[in-house]
Model the fold of this input.
Amino acid sequence: MPKKKILIIYTGGTLGMGYKIRGDENSPLIPLDWSEIQNSIHIFSHEGYFVKEKGIEFTFHKFNEAIDSSDINPLHWIKILEIIEDNYFNHDGFIIIHGTDTMAYTASFLSFAIQNLTKPIVLTGSQLPVLHSRTDAIQNLSNAIHIAASDLFGIKNIPEVLICFNDKLMRGNRATKSSSRDFSGFETPSFKLLGDLNEPIKINEDLILPIPDGKFETHKKYDTGIIVITLFPGFDYKYFDTIAEDKNIKAIILRTYGNGNAPTDSNFINCLKNLVNCGKLLFNISQCIEGEVLTEKYNTGKKIDECGVISCKNMTLEAAITKLIWLIGNIEINLIKFAFTKNLKGELY
Ligand code: ASP
Done:
């Protein structure tokens, strides 16, 4: 079998962090340069199992400046797209080391921006730095390598953007960070896991997206003219007027209650109608972590439906936001409703 080539893209995140004041565990964690941690990650070394026994060739690409993923912005996503594009045809799989805070946003954006992906792109990170004595980084990286070099381990090739964390393999645009302390940090609340990486590894093969035939390409345009509003009892509708006047805002995601329900108050309904009349796209997503928008169930849902609010169905908030960032940047505004409600990359039912 020819050698497997895996590209490791290091962006930063807790996996690669160390204390700001060396040796002082009370000082804040800061991202370290890849050169400061690479030698501690023995699974990448020439003497390690993956290189020595499996013949995997790792190549590395690090961000010029490693970042905490709370500092991620779309320019970093474009950078990642460029790195993948430049290396796509001479690698078999990609692992992106990323902070957990915004990992689900990055994974979701990449899933929409990459067309005709035939190879695995696996995002992973850890809750404790790789230099910590109880780190979860090695287990997460090792699992990610199994998925990225799949057939070396008898695993089906998964041509998707994935998150691999604590023995769970998740579709990236279905995942959300659920804990800042538990080693099992991520969930896919309205979807099944793509794989259970316990012993033995079990992949839900029937859920994996088919290998596409078209030409691999990345679409790098984006537009962040979106805001997200969480409804709460007593929310002051006057803020909608400010939003209606702001030309840069093209879409508003309303985080509604339960099955997509919202107040029936005529002042609220009129504000929504006014936003639609001003050319804004309105979207309905539930504040519930699990479940879906089913506005026909209650009158309180039907009312906002009648204003032309578009359902996010059972998408994660991260998927809905990044799908809009990507769609608004790439297609005509009048086509967005149609494209948004379509299942593009397995992000909704
Ligand atoms: N703040 C860190 C980050 O997102 C958290 C982590 O990696 O777990 O970069």
